[in-house]
Amino acid sequence: MKSKLLSTFSMLRFFIVAALTVFCVSCDKTETTDSTGFILHYLGVTDIGPGMSYTLQAPTYKGSAPYDFTITKVTLNEETFSNNDNFVINAETGEITIQNTDGMTSGMYSISVGCYSNGKFFDFKDAVQVNMLLAVPEGVTVEPAEVLVNQDEENWAEASAQVSTEADKHVSITGYAIAQDETKPYLSYFTFDPNTKGKIIIRESEKDKLVAGESYTLNLKLTTKAGEHMYNNAVTFKVVSKPRDLFYIETEALPDLFETGTENKSVIPTIAGAKEELKFAIKSVTPETTAFTINEATGQISVPEGNSLEISETPYIFTITASNAYGSNDFEGIYSVKVVAFIEPIQPETFNYTPVNKLYQLGGGLESQKPDEGFVGGAPTFQFDESNSEEIKAQIAQNIISINSANGAISIANNHTLSAMTHEIKVKVTNKKNEEGVVKALSVTVVENPNDFTYVSWGTNIEHEIIIGAEDDYFPKKETNIAYRNQFRFINRNWGVNGNKVENIEVLDSDIPAGSTASYKLIGKFPNNNNFPQLNVGSILENGTITTNNGNSSSLGGSNSAAAAILLIEVTSSNNEAPAVKKNIPVFFNSPENVSTGTLLFTPFVVRINPHTGQCSSTTSKVYEWKNHKFNKEVSAPNIAIDYRTNFSYWNFDNNQNHASGDLKANTSTDAEMLFQVWNNCGFSKPSDMGTRVPLCYYDTQKEDYPGPGNLTAKAGYIDATTHQIVINPEKWKGKDGLYPNGVVIGHIHYVFDGNANRIHNSKYPDGTPVTPADGKGYSLFLWFDETYEGN
């Protein structure tokens, strides 16, 4: 069992390296879609400023190893940008260097990257996005520039820094945020105080992740009327404490072996705590002896050549005192040594692993695969070799692949994301007689899971042709366009007057393998209550059929106002050979509000979005007159103004507690909710700010003299006024944990036909006359965030 310190340092290494492996971060999510074939994945948006240079790490990938990388296109704010060596890619590794930034125009740069994999060329549009900000406004400072965080103090987590402006050089700052940099996952540990403008604090929920002895430097993104500005290296939180959690070697490897009469040394220990004036001393040795000495600076324990220690089965047990500028600590029994006659050198031919010929994707794991019997070598230490592939290193960084340093046992967690191929996991073993080490590999052949599937379809009813003058057809059919899959629209509140009630919705299609058995379980209803006005669900049958409460003419639909609902259905595909595969499949229901002057319909009404890239699926909008349970005619609306406006909610599809579901409401939302965090990313940090509509509205003001959309790049998203398509700014869609959302935002659309955007806000005409409510309001549009989405 690893010590607490080793676990702490492993976590730290994970956070440092995890930026290389964003694709794998979501491996513990239940998937809503499956990505097949070759996939390339870079880190997300990076905020940088003039004069800064930056190297974006090599991408992760799924499939055969990529090569011959090239930049195929660069755009600035969606316009072609002439790349004069501002962005340079390493053809072998895919690393992208951003340089010569002094004169670069501010804005969002999107970099498309091409590469070969298995002889085929792939071009990934907008694979990388870089947000170039303006320089920090003159007169802005952070006090103190270095915050000392002493974990030995009772209220150490209350340490903070304050952004200030000089009185004679006053800059009006309207928004505060920590600049994005995915090579620094620790940025999520800090935030701005929602109650004090410009105050940088440690998140209470993240404080235990701060490691004594480490420093955390933050860049700030400040918003003024002139735009967004980068304050580089604005503040450093320096975490200190007296020494804690000293670690030499694995408990399983103790006692260490020293050979009698020869010079012997321990490993150099690791320790948590401040490094200033760090010293080590031997407090006691049992049995007592003065033969051992310790390096005061490093903590390494040794005995010299010709020492008088005698061979004994009784180990020497050490208590070590470590001290620094902030105090000292005694670590009792932290290390032990047994004196032996001879330490056996490592015999390379005896170090081997038996190959693992079948490890399944999606649920297959490996537990404690030890080296073959017959290994010869005294007091060995096993560790992963640096020559491992990037894919293996990525899994090691997340502790998905782990090793016991005492016995060499390798374990692979069942949430691994290794590609289907034969992998070599390289291990180096060393001991005191062979410090250069011997490297051997465990061969693991990863195979596709025969239970894997990509979709289950209950069909759709939005592909039915709208027939003017006829009652709408509500019955499901198998979709011909996958963008419509599992979407159902019920318009008439009193629909089904002629007996057209939909009481059962059956599974119409899936790609669950023929040899697998499918089972279904309803695991979520959104809104989360037993009976929806818009979806009165009875149960999910064994064959996946969604049943409704019979005998009610409003079995589906039935709401007096616009309504939206989601069923989240867990589908399990299993057989006796391989691990079962579980995926959460959402089924969407929409009941648009009838409006006498025209009913707006979006088709499809679910917009698929990759929050990493901002890629969105498209939709079309039309207006129909609806009378007597029928579409009377299609209405021409050339001046229609549409806004994504009110009643925003987020429903989480995975178990990430940092991305909590909830309705966004002023003074009741908390920073655990995903939408609170998105609003925070847009510069709104207080609970009272949650009432603002700006982050998802195109028309972002309720003033009577409507001035226009404002700064669109500062928003989380909006409906474009011309195309009526959803636009997403991906840098805004990230939680405080640095991960992207996996779930759905539901919000209501408001619209008017005369183009007067003021009326969307239910405000007043310039002469002070009150306007009537907008022509239409309350149409629900779904934004489905899924970072595996690649377009359809």
UniProtKB/TrEMBL annotation:
Signal peptide as annotated in the record? 1-19
Q: Per the record's keyword annotation, is Signal included, yes or no?
A: yes
Q: What keyword terms does UniProt attach to this protein?
A: Signal
Q: Report the superkingdom from the record.
A: Bacteria
Show the Pfam families listed in the entry.
SGBP_BT4661-like
Q: What is this protein called?
A: DUF4958 domain-containing protein
